[in-house]
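The aim of this short unit is practical: by the end, you should be able to scan a pair of folded records and say something sensible about each. We start with the first protein, listed as its amino acid sequence and then its structure tokens.
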Amino acid sequence: MIRKLGALALVGLMAGTAVSAEPVEITNDSFKCLADMQKVRHFFVDNLLGDLEATLAVANNKKGGVYPPGSVVQLVPTEVMVKREEGWSPRTKDWEFFELDVSAEGSEIKVRGTDQAVNKFGGNCLECHERARPQWDMICEQGHGCLPIPITRKQIAQIQAADPRCEPADAKTED
């Protein structure tokens, strides 16, 4: 197994890409206030393995790219995609989908998975994201091939601004 991982890493380096065998551990504490993440256009990104620079490089690349393991992509507080280690789920291009309950106390994972993850509105996450053209690594934006979502950018911004995890610490305490 170690020899196989070493060979994969060597092939990845020769191809000019990093291959991470480090598992992406995900708990309720992995998810935070949107304002504490990096905003890219109208969505937010982070990296659970500390490689935010590589995540931002793909998110900002006008030609697309493959997100590195640990990448977190979030449009609204309650729905998240996390890029897992290479080979974790070929069908989802190694993305895991999450539906969260969020409050001033933090995040709680309600749904997680690959092709079976369904959001609270009954939408299957993969069915929407797999429509993105290959160069976009399952990230849906206008012009990426995904179906439009039934809310406006203004409504999205209002939902983002209302993330309850972003309340000031003193506003979280009860009288």
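Turning to the second protein, read its sequence before its tokens, just as you did above.
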Amino acid sequence: MKLLRALALLLVAAGLSGCGYNAIQRQDEAVKAAWSEVVNQYQRRADLVPNLVNTVKGYAQHEEKVLTEVTNARARVGSMQLTTDDLNNPQKLQQFQQAQGELSSALSRLMVVKENYPQLKADGLFQNLQAQLEGTENRITVARNRYVQSVQQYNSMIRTFPNNLTAKMFGYQVKPNFTVENEKAISTAPTVDFGNTPAPAASAH
């Protein structure tokens, strides 16, 4: 009896392996790991925001609108937590993208503010925070790209035969991904108007 049971388990294991079960499991774990890195980098950026806001406020207190936008955007990001269990929910992923995109735009406007304040641009703390922000943005881009690739590989795997049968049997679903529209919105630099009127050109004599 024990021998028959062991043989049955071996046959089941071999069948699952042949149908791609193990490969689907590995790819699903790869997606989760890639997402964790995305979240880590976004959190790194969020952690920089309070110091950035306080530093800018020290030189540009009347830029209240921009400072408020950054603070509010960070608060929305903090309330929009997306776990690996939520990755199959396209609505939640879209909401997460939108919140991160709003913070990206707000931070871009904050960085433009410095152009009107030479002392702020020269401040050592601000320069250090700016360098950290730029490095973090690069890490976010890398992490997002890796996540996109992981999801594409996972989705392709569970859509192909016979993996699609195994995926359906065990409830694996196609995962939503970052959208092209969101990528375009995040990468578009915001237009900022400080209301400065250029001086009239001197007339030739």
